[in-house]
Every structure is written in C-alpha cells, then in structure tokens.
Specification:
Helix content: under 10%
Low-confidence stretches: none
Radius of gyration: 16 Å
Distance between the termini: 24 Å
Number of domains: 1
Order of helices and strands: HEEEEEEEE
Oligomer: single chain
Structural class: mainly beta
Mean pLDDT: 92
Number of strands: 8
Largest sheet: 5 strands, antiparallel
Number of helices: 1
Strand content: 35-45%
Shape: globular
Length: about 150
C-alpha cells in the first residue's frame, strides 16, 4: 500500500507559470492554507485572480486561514478518470466551504473509507500530504472528517 492516498502517475501540481497561485503552493509546503484576499475591500476569493471579484481592485494579497471547513458537496468517484487511477476507486471528492473566509470553496479528496456515510455540512480538517520523493517536491491538501 502506498503511503499516499492516490496512486502515483498523475501530473505533478505546481504553481502557474505567471506566479499567481505561488503563495498557495508555498503555503501548503509549510502546512498552511493560504488563499487570496483583497487588500481594499477585505473580501476573500478562490481561485486566484488578478482582480477582486467584489470591488475590482488590483490590490490583492494572500492570507492564511484555518484549514477547517464544512462539506458543501461531494461525489464518490467509481470510474477511473486517468490511467494512473485504474486501480483506485472508489474515492471521494469534496467541495469544502470556509465560513471563516466569505464561504469560498476548494476541491479536494476526502481521506478514509470511500464508502463512509457523508453529510452536507459535516466538518472537515485539512491534511497536508507532502511528496518529497518527486522532482519537484510538492504538497497536496487532502481532507478528513473532523
């Protein structure tokens, strides 16, 4: 059994070439969840953009939030969507919402029994999965029921 939740063979995630989401990936490497926040109106947003969705300011930064949230939605994946996942399944993908950050949402895998009962609104906490045996090294943010 692999020490990681998903099988190897998938593309290594990395920051976009323009650097827009570099703070997010750097934060994960340090066990921190860092998302974008407007420095003008203080609104949170995800995915990262060059301008604020609310006030249209270009004055954006990144701030750490607690890596806890609630399940907004979920899906059990039964069929492989990539050849590297041919022996992986089922697994659960969750859409996690952060009430503490204007209800922004991120997608991730839910660790544990893929057949576990799930409820919308269930609390989850982030698990930082470090892949240090790859080039480049990277960290994934996975989720588990709190």
């Amino acid at each position: 059994m692999s020490e990681y939740y998903l099988n190897p063979g998938l593309a290594i995630p990395r920051a976009q070439a323009d650097g827009l989401d570099k703070a997010y990936w750097d934060g994960l490497a340090e066990d921190k969840l860092i998302i974008q926040r407007c420095l003008s109106c203080k609104g949170w947003q995800w995915g990262p953009e060059w301008l604020c969705h609310r006030c249209h300011s270009f004055d954006l930064g990144y701030e750490e939030i607690e890596s806890t949230g609630v399940i907004y939605s979920h899906e059990r994946v039964w069929h492989p969507i990539h050849p590297a996942l041919k022996d992986q399944g089922p697994y659960v993908v969750v859409l996690v919402e952060f009430p503490q950050a204007d209800y922004v949402r991120v997608v991730g895998n839910l660790l544990g029994d893929p057949l576990q009962p799930l409820e919308i609104g269930a609390k989850v906490k982030g698990v930082f999965e470090h892949h240090t045996d790859t080039d480049p090294v990277y960290t994934l943010l996975q989720w588990q029921l709190a």
